[in-house]
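quick one, 528 residues, struct below
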Amino acid sequence: MTDWTSGYVADIDYTHDFFRELAPTHLGFCALSQGHDHGLNRPGMTYCELGCGQGFSANLLAAANPHVEFHAMDFNPAHMVGAANLAQDAELENVHFYERSFEDFGDAPGLPQEFDVIALHGVYSWVSKEHQQHITDFISKRLKSGGMVYISYNTLPGWAPVMPLRRVLTNRADQSAGPLDQRIKEAMEYAQQLEQSGAGYFAGNPAAAKRLEQMKSKPANYLAHEYFNKDWTPFHFEDVAADLSQAKLSFLGSAEPRDHVDDASFPPEQQALIQAESDPVQRQSLRDVLLNEQFRTDVFMKGKLQHTPRGAIAAWFATPLALTRQPSSGPITLSWRGRDTVIEQEQFGPALKALEQGPMTVRALLEQGVFGEMPWGDISRMLTLLIGEGYLAASLSPEGLAERAERCRAFNTAVAKRSEESESLQFFASPVTGGGIALNRFEQLFLLARSEGRKTPGDWADLVWQILAPQGQRLQKDGRVLETAEENLAVLRVRATAFAARRLALCESLGLTLEPDEEAAQSSSAAA
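---
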């Protein structure tokens, strides 16, 4: 009998994560930043996620983008059951889940013939060469002309020194019996013994010792899926580009906006080397060598359509931006790729202050004069870096906001209800950005309490404690578990007060609160 897992880890569930690179608004901005017309704003868009894991990202995006039809597949039936249950609880009708393999997914009933976007995050390096071919075959047959592919994968040369460590770990785990999480723990302990014994491999490869130290703090489900699959392939960029060229795809750019600004990653002498390389594929390979790259998040397109210079600026002007993170006072120092880039308060402050009132297009910000005398090149560079750092996000049009707000409210309520039992879901859907915003368990429960009529931060804290106490859960402070109800309540009230002061207004502007949006509902009724 054939193993249905094909060597992929299935006895430990994957994590419930959201990755901003999957959001259509973010992918559209990355295309815009590279001067390309992406066409992701047209109605009736179709989106496919291959290897969607728990399906959390697909559900979140479906809530935030009701104008898009989402189709997501994974081979793991437990993942698909959980994803479908969340979709049902969130009343989502525009997301469809398929328990399929890469080989037979194309035969699934009801699957659209073509997609505008096909995305796969954390898949390509962790499946066999056979399945990689199934993936490229699917893309070749199902991606529309002008369509976009997002793909992430482990990369060489960054992983080269660590590959023997991964082999040590998997060999050790394969020699043992019992649950995988216990075998992972024992394999980790064995690798640490090797390092402490003075093994020459670790002495000669500081990167491997550093990686082993980082792995100690990672949960078993992350380690299982990252390191312990049968197939695990770090790629040279040019090899992935060659694979995708079979499907008529060409490289567009990184899904990491900060990588669009060379001086944020490279000193002048390395920038000169990059600029001297005329071949676009070899230029990316050169970047990987200069950075010792370990992981790439790439966007490819089937038929790139370059904006004219005037059209590129017009597309920038029409892009709505939303504030997603409050800066502290003083300059912003962006630490990226081992380099620091400083943006002064007088450069970004007026723009971020204006966006506190709500999303605005770049044109509206320019009309308000928030950029002063900055030339356009400096403005677009700064906005790209601020989006990359998470202070801003490209957003959706105000049209359709009422429907999106209602869909997100239902989804976020379902997520918050699950947070009564666990902390596995850490994101809400934003009807403003069309993507996810990180909120920890306590922040979600504070918003849930607020939606249930609790007026003050103290009231929110009381409700959270009523949830935690019967479960035997306790908070920690200064490394000490708090035993008494009074101590736990005191810490919860401090956290609730801080949340109300620092994040609540931002949550409101991003549409994350769980109360029905009366203003949006009234607007919709008036329009009807």
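The chain has 22 helices and 16 strands.
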